[in-house]
Amino acid sequence: MLQQHHDLLSHTLKYPSNLPQQEQFELAGGVEVSLTDVGILRFEPPQPDAADIVLSAGVHGNETGPIELLNRLVQELLAGTLNCRNRLLILLGNPPAMVVGKRELEHNMNRLFSGNHSNYQGDEAQRAKRLELAVTEFFQQRDGQRYHYDLHTAIRDSKREKFAIYPFRHGKPWKRQQLAFLANGGIDTALLIHSPQTTFSYFSSNQFGADAFTVELGKVRPFGHNDSQSVAQIESQLRRLISAEPVLIDAAAPLTVFDVAQEINKQSDAFTLNFADDAANFTEYQRGDLLAQDGEVEYRAKADGEAIVFPNAKVALGQRALLTVLPVGAEQPFE
Ligand SMILES: [Zn+2]
């Protein structure tokens, strides 16, 4: 029982596929808590402030640091040491993969949103659909200020340990205040995306106008091996948001914003990356450096300082094998 043990993570790992029973109970102060499905937990204050907040982690099952972060917040909420004053939906994305400590069982779940799950079979496709439904039911209840932070950790080292991916906004301005919120949470790098994706954060941004981000919080480690200090700043920001206290948005917090320079999709089985397998994210290259080859096609850096992000030669054909980025130019619209 979640109500007694306050531990959503243990509960989810124990029942990763089927919830033995739904739970609904009330906290002191009248906050309604509902565990409606595996890893899907809602908090509804009696008189909520304006924000509707979705926090998700574990869409990749082995990305344990953010899962533990959300579990700490849930423990504090259930223990009454953190006040829930905004509506809140907590999602643990891929429980069966969490149990076996794998990023995914069959499919990369963070490519299955915005309906792309219907093109796939299996548990992960069904789960992506279930998560979409949970977010839809949550946001549709009112016209609040909508937020979704989908928390991840990266597979590889990174020259920039923490960074946020800002999904495509279809020409709407990027929000400086959101970037400042993240920067004051220790996430000093952001990456602007310029095309629709099938990620969870794009789904919430595009379908519901949420301020939504994929947030990378460091490197993958097993459960129990994460340093909670390294995420203390963003954890504090999330606590402030949940409890409707002023969040920190000091414009002086360090922040570098990157734009996508090249998005390189794997077109053939001959695709190779021209750097070490363990090259860190945000490693920089000089104009003309060969980055990847796909049969006859060569991909080279187009500018000095062009940096690589998310290289993965093992993706399925047609999927993204490499992004390159450059510091943002003056032409991007911010508000
Ligand atoms: Zn991830």
UniProtKB/TrEMBL annotation:
Q: Which keywords does this Swiss-Prot/TrEMBL entry list?
A: Arginine metabolism, Hydrolase, Metal-binding, Zinc
The annotation note on the cofactor reads: Binds 1 zinc ion per subunit.
Needed cofactors, names only, are:
Zn(2+)
- Catalytic residue list: 216
Q: Which residues form the Succinylglutamate desuccinylase/Aspartoacylase catalytic domain?
A: 51-242
Enzyme Commission no: 3.5.1.96
Tell me which residues make up the AstE/AspA barrel-sandwich hybrid domain.
254-327
- Residues noted as binding Zn(2+) in the record, renumbered to the chain: 60, 63, 152
Domain of life where this protein originates: Bacteria
The pathway is:
Amino-acid degradation; L-arginine degradation via AST pathway; L-glutamate and succinate from L-arginine: step 5/5
Please give the Gene Ontology molecular function terms for this protein.
hydrolase activity, acting on ester bonds; succinylglutamate desuccinylase activity; zinc ion binding
The record ties this protein, via SUPFAM superfamilies, to: Zn-dependent exopeptidases (SSF53187)
InterPro entries according to UniProt: AspA/AstE_fam, AstE_AspA_cat, Aste_AspA_hybrid_dom, SuccinylGlu_desuccinylase
Q: What class of enzyme is it?
A: hydrolase
Instruction: Give GO BP annotations, semicolon-separated.
Output: L-arginine catabolic process to L-glutamate; L-arginine catabolic process to succinate
Tell me which Gene3D superfamilies the record gives. Answer: Zn peptidases
Reactions that this protein is recorded to catalyse: N-succinyl-L-glutamate + H2O = L-glutamate + succinate
The task this protein performs is described as:
Transforms N(2)-succinylglutamate into succinate and glutamate.
Q: Which family does it belong to?
A: Belongs to the AspA/AstE family. Succinylglutamate desuccinylase subfamily.
Query: What NCBIfam families does this protein's entry cite?
Result: arg_catab_astE, PRK05324.1
Query: Could you identify this protein by its name?
Result: Succinylglutamate desuccinylase
